[in-house]
Amino acid sequence: MRPVIPYVTAALLFGLGVYGVLRRRNAVLVLMAVELMLNAVNLILVTADTTVRAQLPHGGQVFALFVIVLAAAEIGVGLAIVLQLYRLRASVAVDEVPLTERAAEPVAAGRPVRADTGPFDRPEGER
Questions:
Q1: 3-class DSSP assignment, residue 116
Q2: pTM of model > 0.85
Q3: Between 27-51 and 4-23, two packed helices, what is the crossing angle to 10 degrees?
C-alpha cells in the first residue's frame, strides 16, 4: 500500500479543520472543525500502523481508538457548553462570548439582578 495517498488526505482534512476553527464564528461549526482535525489524526495513526512495523502490534489502531473516545467526550462537553451559552445569550456566535468578568452586579432583595432582564422576568413582588 502506498502511504502517500492517506497522508495527503489526512493533511488536507487537518488543514480544512484548522481553517474551520480559525474562520468560523458559530460554535457548533467550530466543534465540527475540531472533529475533522481529530479524524485526520486518526487516519494518520491507522496509516502509520499499517505501513510501519513497530514494537507494539496494532499500536496506531489503539491510539486511534483512544482519540475516538477523546473526541466523543469533547463533543459531549462542548455541546453542553454551547447549549448553556445559547440559553444565556440566545446566540452561539463565538466572537460574542465575553472573555472577561463583569463588574459586580446590583443586588435587589438579596438576589442579583441581571441588567438584561425585563419587567416580566422578575417575581410578582418586585414589579
A1: coil
A2: no
A3: 160
